[in-house]
Design a protein that fits this description.
With about 160 residues, the chain is of the alpha/beta class. It has 5 helices and 5 strands.
């Protein structure tokens, strides 16, 4: 099983890189997420955000292998708890399938990405900046793993 995170945006601030690296290095080798960055589409004054979102979505879809299971992170998705994520992680490990988690850019994920998704999750009812979502996701994957192995990091 492999977990990939496909995220829009390159040249993240140092705090984002440090946060993602910190939680990723704590993960066991077999669960360490592979992070793939998709460049932001060009945005001009006369270009609608929807057009940029669709262009980014096309690049995301090209980065996902056909057999991959896809989880889209979207404010309109299903809210899940950390305990539910831990349960999901355990199921993923047993399935042997590979998973891609999608993080959109400033305009979110394209309709094509949402349609490709097997599941759509919301990390919060709040609208979060996409760099912060990377750190939050990395921490939650680590926390979910600690729950599955009874590590004392998570306190319910």
């Amino acid at each position: 099983m492999r977990i990939s995170v496909v995220a829009v945006g390159t040249r993240m601030p140092a705090w984002v890189i440090q946060g993602v690296e910190e939680y990723s290095k704590r993960m066991p080798r077999e669960l360490k997420p592979l992070w793939r960055e998709i460049p932001l589409a060009r945005r001009a004054k006369d270009t609608a955000g929807d057009q940029a979102c669709v262009a980014e979505g096309d690049q995301i879809l090209k980065a996902i292998p056909a057999a991959e299971r896809v989880i889209a992170l979207d404010v309109e998705g299903k809210r899940i708890s950390t305990a539910q994520l831990a349960g999901q992680l355990a199921v993923w490990q047993m399935s042997g399938d590979n998973y891609s988690i999608l993080i959109g850019g400033p305009d979110g994920l394209s309709p094509g990405c949402l349609a490709r998704a097997d599941q759509c999750w919301s990390l919060s009812d709040l609208t979060l900046p996409h760099p912060l979502v990377r750190v939050l996701l990395a921490e939650q994957l680590y926390r979910a793993w600690t729950i599955t192995v009874n590590h004392p990091y998570h306190r319910a």
